[in-house]
Specification:
Pfam families: HD_5. GO terms for molecular function: hydrolase activity. This is HD-GYP domain-containing protein. Keywords: Hydrolase, Membrane, Signal, Transmembrane, Transmembrane helix. The structure is a single chain. This protein is mainly α. The chain has 2 domains: about 5-240, no CATH class; about 260-425, Orthogonal Bundle (Hypothetical protein af1432), CATH 1.10.3210. The protein is about 60% helix and about 0% strand. It is elongated, with a radius of gyration of 30 Å.
Length: about 450
């Protein structure tokens, strides 16, 4: 427990004591007959076992395997308990699962106790909010649809208590340890929006209604099982997306290490590409792909000799031919990465020009893929507005004027106009992309003739 500051320990202890007080009426010494008649013990135990059963698989996942979804997947079980049981009994339902669930990193005991306490208090608060707004516990089940508003109130109370508790532990621990851990949202990720909790509240209410139906608790699985499966699919999607992001990040870092003159360039081209695509009202699912295209447009530089990339001064004709191969190198590198979709064509064709004078294939006009035309404008714009070790950046206004001058010959006018409109709305943050001081150090690394304008340096993007 040495990793947890004293203030955080005191805070956690206070929360645990509050949770114990909330559950106190159930565990207090009372006549056995009163307990058995006042509490639906069977429902309480079944719900606790169900929640624990949902938590246990995470405990036995392979080392290093990402946590699936977290306790958000199983909140409907806890909210069903809040709608079916008295507040004190509902507070006990999450405790076994929270104590048995997996935690990553020490101190495991403190993490489990903290998670159990926070969920107990949140469930207790949800039960009270449900009752306060008129929710009733009949001998059978909540009366639907009249219980809808009280159930949503309970879900919001659940959300608010978790949010406040997590904010408190984050403040007292000063970010030293994310105590919630698996099986509960970490303080930094904890339920930023109440909307998912409202959905969980509805699922919890349906579970409670079916729980008290003539078909019994088993029928509640008709609500819980589909929701669990949907959350599992959602988790799989996020796991796959995280793997995609890691792949992209590794490739970009490799390029940045090899060509230190354009460090940060790829990310900015990705950002500018998204600005253009949004202005063109591209479908939301395409925005991420066009961002990938911008970020990876220069990945083929990994196949270009470092001495050519870092050479000061003009390139020889042979060196120019070598560097003009980088779009094809890049396309070969990513052709097997299926999730990149249209981005692969953009990587191959982002140096094509509208008049057919570009490379590698001299495509003309709309023969050039749409994403490639977007990335070409974003690439040239960032190359002109970024300070490099061999020249200072041009002002954004001057760069846009240059793009407009070259529209129709080098760039697609529609893409240029979209970038102009986007920057009028959002502006642009330029940055130094070299590790060195931005002062002229000699002739630019380009083979272009004076006046070539936005046909930006072959080795800067």
């Amino acid at each position: 427990m040495t990793a947890i500051p004293t203030a955080a320990r005191v805070y956690i202890l206070a929360v645990v004591l509050c949770a114990a007080a909330a559950a106190g009426p159930v565990v207090a010494v009372t006549p056995l007959a009163a307990i058995t008649t006042a509490l639906p013990w069977a429902s309480m135990l079944l719900l606790a076992v169900l929640y624990a059963g949902c938590e246990l698989p995470a405990r036995y996942r392979r080392a290093g395997e990402p946590v699936r979804v977290g306790a958000g997947t199983f909140f409907p079980v806890l909210l069903a308990a809040a709608f079916l049981l008295p507040p004190a009994a509902a507070a006990l339902v999450p405790v076994p699962g929270a104590l048995l669930g997996r935690v990553d990193g020490p101190p495991a005991g403190v993490r489990r106790v903290w998670r159990a306490a926070r969920l107990a208090l949140a469930t207790w608060a949800a039960a009270h909010a449900y009752l306060l707004l008129g929710g009733e516990r009949t001998p059978d089940a909540p009366d639907f649809p009249y219980a809808l508003v009280p159930a949503l109130a309970g879900a919001l109370a659940f959300f608010l208590v978790l949010t406040v508790l997590d904010a408190g532990v984050r403040a007292t621990a000063e970010g030293v340890v994310p105590l919630a851990g698996p099986g509960g949202p970490t303080p930094t990720r904890s339920s930023a929006s109440p909307a998912p909790h409202c959905v969980h509240g509805l699922a919890g209410l349906m579970t409670a209604v079916l729980w008290g139906s003539p078909y019994g608790p088993l029928s509640a699985l008709f609500v819980l099982l589909p929701m669990y499966l949907s959350c599992w699919v959602f988790a799989q999607y996020h796991r796959e997306r995280a793997a995609h992001q890691a792949t992209i990040r590794a490739l970009v870092q490799a390029v940045d290490i090899k060509d230190r003159y354009t460090r940060g360039h790829s990310e900015r081209v990705g950002r500018a590409s998204v600005l253009i695509a949004r202005e063109l009202s591209m479908a939301e699912e395409r925005l991420e792909i066009v961002r990938f295209a911008g970020i990876l447009h220069d990945v083929g530089k990994l196949g270009v000799p470092t001495r050519v990339l870092r050479k000061e001064g003009p390139l020889t004709p042979e060196e120019r031919r070598v560097i003009e191969l980088h779009p094809e190198y890049g396309h070969e590198m990513v052709r097997g990465i299926r999730f990149l979709g249209e981005a692969r064509a953009a990587i191959l064709h982002h140096h094509e020009r509208m008049d057919g004078s570009g490379y590698p294939y001299g495509l003309v006009g709309t023969q050039i893929p749409e994403f490639a035309r977007v990335v070409a404008v974003a690439d040239a714009f960032d190359a002109m507005t970024s300070t490099r070790s061999y020249r200072r950046a041009r002002p954004v206004r001057v760069a846009l004027e240059e793009l407009e001058r070259c529209a129709g010959t080098q760039f697609d006018p529609r893409m240029v106009r979209a970038l102009v409109r986007a920057l009028e709305r959002h502006g642009w943050q330029t940055a130094v992309t070299s590790d060195e001081t931005a002062v002229p150090l000699g002739p630019p690394r380009t083979t272009e003739a004076p006046g070539s304008g936005a046909s930006h340096q072959l080795r800067t993007g």
